[in-house]
Amino acid sequence: MERLRKLWRGRTMTFGVPLLLYLVGGSFGLREFAQIRYDVHKLHGKVDPTLKEKLKQNTVTLESEYEKLEKSDLDNWENIRGPRLWEDSRTVQKQQREALRLKRE
């Protein structure tokens, strides 16, 4: 009886066994949460048939986009500043239009 009590109060039973239980229990819990994640992903991954048809009708290819870029004039461009977060976009656009109009005149 004394020997059993000594074993129960030892470092193995105090620290080792709870650690092993925590590791084994955590792996089972993690497996369940991962399975829930994959199940939810599978449910949300289903695509509506009408959307699938629209995607099939999309005829944009890499070659067609490259041809569009080839036709555009990339050498003559103007850098236009956008509004800052604290500025009103309408007033900035109005100022840019005025400056552009004055340049043309």
Explain what this protein looks like in three dimensions:
With about 100 residues, the protein is mainly alpha-helical. It contains five helices and no strands. The radius of gyration is 33 Å and the shape is elongated. It starts with a helix and ends with a helix. The mean pLDDT is about 85.
Query: Based on helices, strands and strand pairing, what is the structural class?
Result: mainly alpha
Q: Please, how many helices?
A: 5
Query: Are there runs of 5+ residues with pLDDT below 50, and where?
Result: none
What is the overall silhouette? Answer: elongated
| Largest sheet composition | none
Helical proportion, percent range: over 70%
Q: Secondary-structure element order, as H and E?
A: HHHHH
Number of strands: 0
Strand content: under 5%
Cα gyration radius (Å): 33 Å
Amino- and carboxy-terminal Cα gap: 106 Å
Estimate the mean pLDDT confidence.
Answer: 85
Offer a quick outline of the entry.
The protein is an all-alpha fold. The protein is built from five helices and no strands. It is elongated.
Question: How would you summarize the topology of this molecule?
Answer:
Blueprint: H1 2-8, H2 11-44, H3 49-57, H4 62-71, H5 89-104
Pick out its properties.
105 residues, 5 helices
